[in-house]
Every structure is written in structure tokens, then in C-alpha cells.
Amino acid sequence: LEDITLKTIQDTGNILKQGYLEKRSREHSFFGSEWQKRWCVLNRRTFYYYASEKSKQPKGNFSIENYSARMASHLRKDSRKKCCFELTCPGKRTYEFTAPSPAEAEDWVDQIQFLLKDLSSLTIPYDEEDEETYNDVDSSDSVNTTSHNTTLNQDEANIDMEQDDIYEVLPGERPN
Where's the PH domain (predicted)? Predict the structure, then answer.
């Protein structure tokens, strides 16, 4: 059953990003906070972290809905401070991570922000122009469309009333 749980998370095809990050532990030691290497997996709604890539059970996970992601160089004082980012949500725990490089940290933040934008919208935007076009359709124009349809329906009613006169009476013939 444990193998199935791991495969369900990692083989679903919904993984947006995965890789090793250092995660700051919740418990702080006498010497300050502890950074632990974790295999992290981001899917469409959940952030999982494991002891290693081969672990069968996650050490923890959380829904990323309502979280925000940002670079956070203030988390470390050493040479890796530009590799740090954090996930925050009002009223919930803040998660702090260090990536192997600044570019990798920015990629994690970008992926999470993209996913959060996707979760907050009802549709998946392909690009901004398509999204605007789609939104125009759903705007108040629908009122005009309804009245336009009513006009068309009235025209159809007039055509129905003229159905009796669709045949032209030729000279010398009597109408039925």
C-alpha cells in the first residue's frame, strides 16, 4: 500500500516540479534553525516533502491554495541567501526553502505562482489575449444577445405566419 501511495503522487503526470531543496525545520535548536535536505514534489494542489527521493511516505504535505510564494534572501546570512524562497499564507504556517541555485529558487517561485494563478481562476489561461477574448464573451453583452435572439424569434414568427402565401399565384390560376 505504501508503494501505491508514492506512485500515486509521483506518477500521476500532474507533477509540475520536483527536486531537492533544503527546508527549514519548525523546531529551532540552540544554534538557530536547522536546514534539512528534502525531496520536494509540487503537483496541481499540494506541496509534498520527503526525506529522500526514494522515501515511500512524505514527511509532510500541505495544500498550496491561498499561499503566496516569493524570494526571501533574509532567511540566510551565508552565500546561499539568494537561493531562498518562502511560502506564506495568513493564519497558516510559513514554509521556508533553500534551492541549489538562485535560478532554481526563482523557478520554484514561478511555478508556484503560476499554479496559484491557475487555482484562483475558473479557466486555464493560454495567453492573456485569449483570456481577455473569453472574458468579453462572459461580460454584460449577454443581455444584448438575449434581446437580439428575441428579435430573431419574432422574425421567425412572421415567417411562420407568411407560410400560407409561399406559393406565387400565376396569372390565370385560382388560389387554393
Answer: 14-117
pLDDT, residue 99, reads 98
From 80, 120, 130, select the one nearest 103 (Cα to Cα): 80
Q: Do the beta carbons of residue 35 and residue 61 sit within 8 Å?
A: no
What are the cell numbers at 171? 396569372
Q: Look up the CATH number of the domain holding residue 115.
A: 2.30.29.30
> Which domain range does residue 99 map to?
15-122
Residue 75 covered by a domain: yes
Alpha-carbon separation of residue 59 from 80, 88, 102, 150, 168 (angstroms): 24, 19, 25, 61, 85
Cα–Cα distances in Å, from 95 out to 11, 35, 63? 25, 12, 12
pLDDT tens figures, 19-70: 999 999 877 666 666 899 999 999 989 999 999 999 999 999 999 999 999 9
Residue 94 lies in a domain: yes
- Asked if the model's pLDDT at residue 2 lies above 50, the reply is no
Judge whether 99 lies within some domain: yes
3-class secondary structure, 57: coil
- Nearest Cα neighbor of 43 from 68, 26, 61 is 61
The residue that leads in pLDDT, 134 or 59, is 59
Q: Supply the pLDDT for residue 14.
A: 83
Q: How far is CA 21 from the centre of its chain?
A: 22
